[in-house]
Amino acid sequence: MASLLLQNIAKSYGTVEVLKDIDLDIEQGELIVFVGPSGCGKSTLLRMIAGLEKITGGDLYIDGERMNDTPPSKRGIAMVFQSYALYPHMTVYDNMAFALKVAKMPKAEIDQRVRNAGKILQLTDYLDRLPKALSGGQRQRVAIGRSIVRDPKVYLFDEPLSNLDAALRVDTRIEIAQLKENMPESTMIYVTHDQVEAMTLATRIVVLNNKTHTIAQFGTPLDLYQRPENTFVAQFIGSPKMNLLPGTISAAQDTTTTIDVTAGGVATVPVSAAGLPSGTEVQLGVRPEDFVVAQPGDAVIFEGQASYTEKLGEVTVVYFTPRDGEDSVIAKIPGIADVSKGTQLSLTASPDKLHLFDASGHSFFYK
Amino acid sequence: MNPIILALVTVVLGVIACVTYFFGSNWVLDRIYPDTGPNAGRNINRANAVRPWLFMLPAIAILGLYLVYPVFNSIWLSMMDRSRENFVGLENYRWMIADDKFQESLFNNAMWLIIVPAMSTLFGLIAAGLTDRIWWGNIAKSLIFMPMAISFVGASVIWKFIYDYRGEDQTQIGLLNSIVTSLGGDPQAWITIPFWNDIFLMVILIWIQTGFAMVILSAALRGIPEETIEAAVLDGAGPLTVFFKIKIPQIAGTIAVVWTTITILVLKVFDIVFAMTNGEWGTQVLANYMYRMTFIDGHAGRGSAIALTIMVLVIPIMIWNIRNALKENA
Ligand SMILES: Nc1ncnc2c1ncn2[C@@H]1O[C@H](COP(=O)(O)OP(=O)(O)OP(=O)(O)O)[C@@H](O)[C@H]1O
Ligand SMILES: [Mg+2]
């Protein structure tokens, strides 16, 4: 039930800068996911929004009200911790009721809210149990229930599923998606390592860069996949990561640019690099799953010898012998392809699946 | 021989004897059950079954000699008369129950039992809670802990100076009296004031034990997951609610262990009373009375009866304490 505005938020511990120039405009009802490599500051940013960590620069607004110096409990937020952080000495019921009791809500209303949350989260049979007598998934649901009963403006989740096993993770992810669907008004911010979680849950994703301590890109999941703004996002989203082939501009037309790939091969990308002289160094991005085996007459983008293959049934992942100082080029070919070590392959890709970055890693698409 | 040299030689010989025993017995065990050859696996299992007993044997033997045997001897003695020669049955117990001084001791012990553990734990908890939040907390902790290093008699000597009283017309050197007189009051002979003198003696033990409670409770407080506290802060709880509703319940087990440990210590309280008042002015306690009966009045039978009373009172608390400690570790 709230919009969030982060302006120029920065965080440093002493002289160590952890985050800077964080600008986010989050609308009511969105589910925003923070992703990024370990240590990039996802938790820190979330904790600053919660008020558990001091904001050392910039302004935080919730519903237009500046919140930098508002105590955590007055910000209208609720948080689900990675470790669940249930009160071990309280029953499930009391865990959920604690915040309401502190707020001196009438007993009858507390009871009604707790039982309602218990019903939504299928915890009705466990209300009298202590947390230690619950499974990981049930504890997770209690932690969520503790947020729901408070009916907060903003929900914050810090890697809520990372302690669950793979199968339970999928179930709980779907439950969270349904929860969100039933509460279209509420705003949620969700931190995760897991790309699938990010792609499936988010209305928009924030990718944080651990080298520059800034936002690498803020956009919808498909934006990030189809139109990464820079090589950091390009290689962070998608698995295996996007191939970056060094090359030079051979011809810059009005709406297309032709690239000479250094490893041999040419590609024509439908973006404009107008004004740049031929010979300018660029990086051509191709996702492994966008490579297709070239037919006679196709423009070959990459040619090489397979050094290793993984046949997963659904796809065949081919790793090519890397050139000096470069990463292995990877291609994902649908089905069980007749490729093994030593097979020579020529690959191409549809022009609209190609990405072009300048030498410093910025996408030409956004120029 | 010079007593210092004698002591040194004894210590060195004792250590050598211990080391020799452990190495030697272990060596013999390994010869009997070699861990090579056809039965290596079976031998290792057998040796491992025997080894703990081998190592615990000296401790068990010494504890048996100095703890278990005296208990039975005390039971026997408690049914003998002053000469330790004639069996009198339960006569000593009958005397004890009717004795005024015994009843006074029992009542005083009960007071000690309620007040000292409660206050030590309370102050320890407050100190532990506060010292974690200030930069000079570790200095404060060391200061509070220091009395633990002083023997009870040493502490009593220090407090004797605090409670000291020198007749109306003399200069008061006691700290408490100099404070009172500087505020315009009359000097008091503190340790002779009935009822309050008990409290003044308890203060000494509280002063000593607060450090113990603080150290243990502070470790327990640090063991509380930080996130449960953050969650409570987000839930709107203030510092006091967090302390009483989130922190204390999570360290309840440790509080119980600290409480009962001090309780057991209090049941045996002797040195402080012995050094400060020797049980005069209505401050007698069981342990001191037992000592007085046995060694001053020379009636080992009555003394033993009092000793057994103390033991019977300690045992249930001891069992409860050990249970709690085991639960903590589980
Ligand atoms: N108290 C502190 N003092 C100094 N640096 C800190 C402190 N707390 C965190 N950091 C640093 O801040 C950075 C961001 O930490 P944060 O926990 O937000 O990362 P994260 O993105 O959540 O990582 P993960 O995915 O592993 O949970 C890290 O590099 C960490 O070393
Ligand atoms: Mg984190």
Automatic annotation (TrEMBL), chain A:
- Sequence ranges assigned to domain ABC transporter in this UniProt record: 4-237
Q: Does the keyword Cell membrane apply?
A: yes
* Domain of life according to the entry: Bacteria
| Pfam families noted in UniProt | ABC_tran, OB_MalK
Looking up PROSITE patterns in the UniProt record yields: ABC_TRANSPORTER_1, ABC_TRANSPORTER_2
PANTHER family (UniProt xref): MALTODEXTRIN IMPORT ATP-BINDING PROTEIN MSMX, MALTOSE_MALTODEXTRIN IMPORT ATP-BINDING PROTEIN MALK
CC annotations in GO: ATP-binding cassette (ABC) transporter complex, substrate-binding subunit-containing; maltose transport complex
Q: What is this protein called?
A: Alpha-glucoside transport system ATP-binding protein
Q: What GO molecular function annotation could you give as one example from this UniProt entry?
A: ATP hydrolysis activity
TrEMBL record, chain B:
Alphabetically sorted, this entry's keywords are: Cell membrane, Membrane, Transmembrane, Transmembrane helix, Transport
Q: Which family does it belong to?
A: Belongs to the binding-protein-dependent transport system permease family.
| Keyword hit for tRNA processing | no
Classification via Pfam families: BPD_transp_1 (PF00528)
Record flagged with keyword Transport: yes
Q: Which residues form the ABC transmembrane type-1 domain?
A: 106-323
Location, primary (coarse class): membrane
Q: How does it sit in the membrane?
A: Multi-pass membrane protein
PANTHER family membership:
ABC TRANSPORTER PERMEASE PROTEIN, OSMOPROTECTIVE COMPOUNDS UPTAKE PERMEASE PROTEIN GGTC
* Transmembrane parts of this sequence: 6-29, 50-72, 110-131, 143-162, 199-221, 251-276, 303-322
BP term (GO), one: transmembrane transport
| Listed CDD domains | TM_PBP2 (cd06261)
- Descriptive protein name: Alpha-glucoside transport system permease protein
A GO-annotated cellular component:
plasma membrane
Could you tell me which SUPFAM superfamilies the record lists for this protein? MalF N-terminal region-like, MetI-like
Q: Name where it's found.
A: Cell membrane
